[in-house]
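Structure tokens please, single chain.
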Amino acid sequence: MLRDMKADTHLKPGQKGTRKLLEQYGNRLLCVRYRYDEKRQVRMKTVEIIVDERPGTQHLRYREQDIVAVMVPYAEKAIRERLKAAGGGDGTRRKNSGWSGSAPSGATVNWQREY
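Here you go.
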């Protein structure tokens, strides 16, 4: 059913179209979406609310020792060199598609361009 629906509007609490729901759900309201089902020709309003909250720690997607893939444009030689210095592997180099390689997820690299 959800794959047949397209979300055409995504509203944050307090925006026009969310005020009644904000009164109903209060601080538990995260967002309101308007979806359109093309098959049934129906428009629906859905809400995302917080139903449970408890203390906990953040689950990191990657650990310090994990190897992650990165893509750096060919022209960014300084960034490529920093990645290698941080322990990154040298993947394939192609002038048109950039540089593919891997680096430890904990590697700290300054991603700002230097002009």
